[in-house]
Each structure stands twice: as structure tokens, then as C-alpha cells.
Design a protein that fits this description.
This protein has about 425 residues and is α+β, with helices and mostly antiparallel strands. It is about 30% helix and about 25% strand.
Length: about 425
Amino acid sequence: MIAANNIAASSFGVAGGLIRGGFIAPKTDNAAAICNAIALMSAYGCVLTSEFASLQAESAVKDDGRINDDAKSDIAQTPRPNRGEIKLESVGKIYRSSAGEVKALNNVSVEIKSGEIFGIIGRSGAGKSSLIRMINRLEKPTSGRVLVSGEDIALLNEKELVALRRRIGMIFQHFNLLSAKSVFENIALPLKVAGASREHIEKRVGELLELVGLSEKRKTYPSRLSGGQKQRVGIARALATQPEILLCDEATSALDPETTRSILQLLRDINKKLGITIVLITHEMSVIREIADRTLVLERGEIAELGEVWRVFGAPRHEATRALLAPLRQDLPDDLAAILLKEKPKYADYNQIVALEYTGEGALEPDLARIANALHAKVQLIHGGVDRIQGRAFGRLLVSIPSEARLPDFAPLMQGDDALVHNIEVIGYVPLPDYSI
């Protein structure tokens, strides 16, 4: 009996009784059942021993190196017109225990298009992990349906479920690499489990090492890798069986900002080169901003917002979205907030502080020269910033305007083809000489 660390596998009842009490019986020729067990344990972050990893390869490959028929049929890729498409229809999930019921998801309906990068974000306990685990059927919905590439995955038998999980790769926050295996061996593990030939493994792993920029690290062990390098190994391993969907579970949360940017760039490149659908869950809005095409904001198991990233960021409608965006918002700097007055000073000259907001709608771009001309005043930029998401400008700028300037009606500046800004308002007044022009 071989221990499978970090999991109480007996609670899952997986693979026709192969898993009992956290242990796996080694003597079986049922490659499909073993692969099913591995898929479940891997997705839950189980750390597999090297002895167990060797067992999987021996189960799937015959003594002469040829692939077992069961494994071969699971590896085969059947072309599908809706390859990589994910659809959740009125999905609900309730966890029941002696302490009572917990409603993790409620009436969630969303369609993730083939080949897009889709972000799922929410606060702790919002239901993100439950939702992503529905996609590879690690969790079954209490109500509703989950369709992957047009298949209702609740109807799949054991063998079909193994095949489904080979078409869905997954990467994790803490990498989950086998410490006793080299980079090459870690990446090769899914292929060995699937029963691939030695020649195919050598070729495929070589391609993946080049793709993730680790060709020179093939013999290196995880203990000698940086966090970013470990995640690159995890990405390569997830791509080993040529999946059509890649699930990313907080894949950058354990990385520093610079490494996070490099991993996100790698995922973008993979999406473009391979056309793979990427679904990522995160609590970092900056990650969504950098990489996602569309995003879903979850709050207490329900959809708070759903749409293109630029639209959700530019004009958030739900309180949960605004709270998640707060760290990225250009708020008043402390020194300005300390002296900002709500009413015009009666005893001194002052500057008017005007906020200009851009939501990404249309083709509006900040143009201070045109704004100064429209306001008939000299304009000084004192704070703010504008980001670009999917080719659209959004952000907030604070400008200072002298008190003698008679500001016109703002409405024409926000309307029609000649609009200069999406929203403009006076937010306060600053006595001179502070922020004087």
C-alpha cells in the first residue's frame, strides 16, 4: 500500500474502490481507474510520492513500451466544433454537513467562449473554487448543468470522465511538484500516466520545456528552482496532454509582482499560440486587468457582474466590484485630502479641484489641451492616472483650475460626438498657495 499525501481520499469513493483510507492499492491493471484517481488528487493539490508516480506509468504501459488499449483510447483527441467551450446553466451548489447547509453557488449561468481568457474573481467565500471545480467535475452541482465542449459532464461514465480530465489542465497556487523528480520527470508524469510511448514523451516534454523557457532546467530538481520557474513547470505539466482548457487556481498569488507579470505574459502567449481556453480564479483585480478578456464577479455565490473587463473596470455597478477595485482606484492623496474644502473659501483665493473620469466607452482619450480650451481656463494636472484595457482608456484625473475661471455647464462636455470626458465634477476647493498655478 502506498500513501497519497495531503488528502483524505476515502471521502471521495473514487475509481471503483481503488482509494481507501488515504491509500492506493498498487496491484491493478485498470489504467483508466488509476488515471481517474490521479486526476482527482492532482486537482485537490495532492502531493504524490515518486513510487506512486512510477506505478501509474507501469499500469498504463506494457512491458515492451507499447500503450495499453484502455489508455490509448483515452489519449485520443476527437475534434469537436465547440472545443474548449464551457457553459454553466443555472448552477447551484449546496454543501451539507452536521452543522447545516452552506449555499456556495446559486443560479449561476455563464458561457465561456472557446479560446478566450476568462477571469473569475470574488472575495473569500464567494464561491470561486466551487465554481472552477465544477468544470472538471471535482464537484457536482446540486442543481443545473455544466457542459464542456458541448457535453453534459454529469452524464459521463468513469472512462469518459478520465478522458475529460485529460482535456482539462490545471495549475495551482503552490505548484504541487514532485520534489524527488526532475523538471523533465514532473512534466512527463501525465504522459506516463496516460500511457504515452517513450519517444512521444521525450518529444512532447522537449517542446513544452522550450515553450515555457526552461530547456536548460530539464534535469534540475524543484528545490533548486525559483517560484516563477516552479510555476512554469506546473504550466508545462498541465499542457502535457494537449488540453483544450486550462484552469488556473490562484496561479500567481504566491509570486512577487515581477514574476507574476512574466507568468501572465506566458499564459497570454500560450493562449495565442495554442488557442486554449483559460479560466482563472483570483482575488487580485490587477491580474484580471492584465490578462482576461471577460470577467465574472462572484458575491456570496451569485453573479454580481459579468462582462468585458474594460466595461466592468470602467463602470462597476455592484458594491463588491467597487470594493475589489478600490486598491486600483486613484483616490485623493493624503496631503490633498487634508486641505480640500467642500465649500468655497470666503477669506482667501483658492483653486477649484475638478475630477475627470473615463470609463472606456467609445473612443474617448484624455486630452488636457482640449479640456482647458472647453473650460476656458488654465488646467494643471495634480493627481490621477489612466490605464488602458483592451484598447480603451479608463481612469480618473484630478486637475486644478484658478478660482477666477468661470466654469461652463459640464453637460455638453459629456454628451454627443464632441464629448471630452465621461464624467466631470468639482469635488472641492483648495486655498492658495496650496496647489497654486
